[in-house]
Structure formats: structure tokens, C-alpha cells
Write a structure and sequence with these properties.
Blueprint: H1 3-19, E1 27-32, H2 45-48, H3 55-65, E2 69-72, H4 79-84, H5 92-95, H6 108-116, E3 128-133, E4 143-148, H7 150-161, H8 177-188, E5 192-194, H9 198-203, E6 211-216, H10 220-233, H11 251-265
Antiparallel strand pairs: 1-3, 1-4, 2-3, 4-6, 5-6
Helix pairs in contact: 1-10, 7-10
């Protein structure tokens, strides 16, 4: 990894710490094509622990433990994410929606539509997914992902729009947020706001107050400028709520203060 990249990762991590204050590590995520070397310092669950970790679980470990993780076909036991990330090819049963009917959809048609709308890479396009804290990444990210509450995510939205204006657009199906975070962001090449899915809450330990903001690495300079610019403009976290002004005290307190003033005003 070049000194320039290392400095840029540190700069972004520092800016997020200062302006957003996330509870967990902001993440660098990179997809590896077949034949790409695995960056140093990453742990592969099937080899390091003799365990199988799914994508949302690996993201959760990276952002909470601070570990760098790499996962591929032999690690991912969630068939939905294995198909989405192209580690395995879909079969007819999947395409017909058999994994969704009765759980997420009431009938076969709705389930097939849900699967058809899922963000996916082509089978075999990528071999591994790498995820690590920004501050410890040994690779250039394709995507940066930050988990936070709605106010923290709002902060990142305003940063992303600081130089260009407009609005951000995201899609969600309430399922496979790992695909929304990585694949949607990469394929659209735009920042995204993501609602964590049920699986991320069950296996990734995502809490009810958390959301995700993700953006392609090429946006880093705009995000840095936006965080600083909106901070100077008064959009900050923690939110500087309106606390100035004379408040109304309870009636008994007002009466007590009147008595105190009357006593203090008497000539000695």
C-alpha cells in the first residue's frame, strides 16, 4: 500500500471521527476478481477459525472487533448473499423465489419479483470480499461504509451533497442489506443510505437505531470537503440543539423565587 493511500485512509477516518463520531469502526470494502492477490493482514474465517461467516456477520466483526476479514465461496453459507455476490450461480429454485415465499412474500409471483430486483454481481465476476476498518485497511476500498444513527447518517448525506446539491437515491427490499451496501453502491457508482435488513440484525448484531451510509471511494475528496464545509456552516454532530432563552419554571419555583427576591430587596 502506498504512503499516499495510507494517508488518505487516515485522513478520512479522522474526519469521520471528528464530524460523525460513529460508535463502530468505519469500513473499507473491496471486491477481488479471480486471480487478484489477497491483501495482507486479512483473516479468512474458513482457514483462520475453521468457521463459516456470512457477509453481514463479517461486516459486523470488522466494525466491532476491528479485524480485517476476507470471505469467499468456501466461507459464505448464506445462499442469498453467495448468489448476490456472484460466489455461486443462481438456480431455478432461487429465481422462482422459493427462498422468499412464505417468509418475505405471500406468493410465488411476489417472491420471484423480489429476487429479480435484488442487487447482484454476475456469477464468477468476483472471488472474494475484503472488509476492514479504514484505520487498519491494507487495500484501496471500492466502497466505504459507516454505520450510525439517523443523525449521523444525515451528517454524511449533507456532506455528500455539499458540492453538488441535489438528492441521494437508494432502493431497499428490507433484505440483503449487504448487497445494498456493496453491490448497489458499486453498480450505481453513487452514495447510498441503507436500512439494515433482518439478517444483519440477527447475525451482524446491528442495533435498531443503526443505519448505514455507503459511498464509492472516488467520492472521498467530496466527502472530506463536505464534512468540513457543512461543519463550518453549522450542521454538526452531536446536533447543537436550541438551548438558549429564558425557560418557564414550575409555579412553586416561581413563587419561591419571588419570595427570595422580596426578602433580598428589603432594606437591611
Amino acid at each position: 500500500m502506498s504512503d499516499e493511500l495510507e494517508a488518505k485512509l487516515a485522513e478520512l477516518d479522522g474526519a469521520l471521527t471528528r464530524h460523525v463520531r460513529p460508535d463502530t469502526f468505519p469500513l473499507a470494502i473491496r471486491m477481488l476478481k479471480p486471480g487478484d492477490p489477497i491483501p495482507k493482514g486479512l483473516r479468512m474465517p474458513s482457514e483462520a477459525f475453521h468457521e463459516n461467516w456470512i457477509v453481514c456477520q463479517s461486516i459486523g466483526v470488522a466494525r466491532r472487533y476491528g479485524w480485517g476479514i476476507v470471505i469467499g465461496r468456501d466461507d459464505v453459507i448464506c445462499p442469498l448473499s453467495a448468489i448476490a455476490f456472484g460466489f455461486r450461480a443462481p438456480n431455478d429454485e432461487y429465481i422462482r423465489g422459493q427462498a422468499a415465499v412464505g417468509m418475505y412474500c405471500e406468493n410465488d409471483e411476489a417472491a420471484a419479483n423480489l429476487e429479480a430486483a435484488t442487487w447482484r454481481f454476475e456469477p464468477g465476476a468476483y472471488e472474494y470480499l475484503c472488509v476492514a476498518p479504514l484505520s487498519r485497511a491494507t487495500f484501496e476500498p471500492h466502497v466505504v461504509a459507516v454505520y450510525g444513527n439517523s443523525a449521523q447518517v444525515m451528517r454524511l448525506v449533507t456532506a455528500a451533497l455539499y458540492q453538488r446539491g441535489g438528492r441521494l437515491e437508494s432502493t431497499t427490499g428490507g433484505r440483503l442489506d449487504c448487497a445494498d451496501i456493496v453491490i448497489q453502491t458499486l453498480r450505481t457508482d453513487e452514495p447510498k443510505v441503507i436500512i439494515p435488513c433482518n439478517g444483519d440484525r440477527v447475525f451482524g448484531m446491528t442495533q435498531d437505531h443503526e443505519m448505514v451510509f455507503a459511498f464509492p471511494w472516488r467520492y472521498i475528496d467530496g466527502i472530506l470537503a463536505g464534512l468540513e464545509g457543512t461543519h463550518k456552516g453549522g450542521v454538526r454532530y452531536p446536533i447543537p440543539v436550541a438551548m438558549r432563552g429564558t425557560v418557564t419554571m414550575p409555579k412553586h419555583y416561581q413563587e419561591l423565587l419571588s419570595h427570595l427576591k422580596a426578602r433580598d430587596d428589603k432594606p437591611s
